[in-house]
């Protein structure tokens, strides 16, 4: 049963998350936990799947012009070293997971209630503030074991620093570099990938291709924001109750 239904769950997570420029690590972790995958396998598997899907999404949104190197670099410059630092800090699970979950649920609520505005006008963030927030997001990413897109996406949209599609493209690249940094910090963990991982990777690849195609061309900005709000609710509930 696991050999069939877990790849299906990974496919659905990849499709949903990639449509808003996310890699889907929190969704893969939830799916693997549901099917009883051992914890030592979950983290490297989720990060590797994250790399596949976020790279697909980043390339798709970049090809359509929904990307800003300047904005990406402003946040990524501080997030990558901070993610290394976060990975070395071990907070009690009972402390950080409910806290992060509540933050994500609040962000989902703010995104949903802001849908009535519909404006795609953007402004540049102050460099110092972007570096500070990027560092904080990187730290949270290292602490929680996700790529950071679930924190960056609502921030970019709610602050008016990027359009919905630009947010998807920037978040996908942001997730890719943070996930790569996490894996490079512990390359030995890749030896723990199970023999069934190629099936998981294929499912993520197909879901990522379909989801990113929907996100970059077919879903209107308001729908993208609704999907992102749904993703944040799923991730937030997973953090609190997972």
UniProtKB/TrEMBL annotation:
Keywords: Cell membrane, Membrane, Transmembrane, Transmembrane helix. The chain crosses the membrane at residues 45-62, 69-89, 95-115, 127-152, 192-211, 223-241. It is a multi-pass membrane protein. GO terms for cellular component: plasma membrane. InterPro entries: TM_pro_TauE-like, TSUP/Inactive_protease-like. Belongs to the 4-toluene sulfonate uptake permease (TSUP) (TC 2.A.102) family. This is Probable membrane transporter protein.
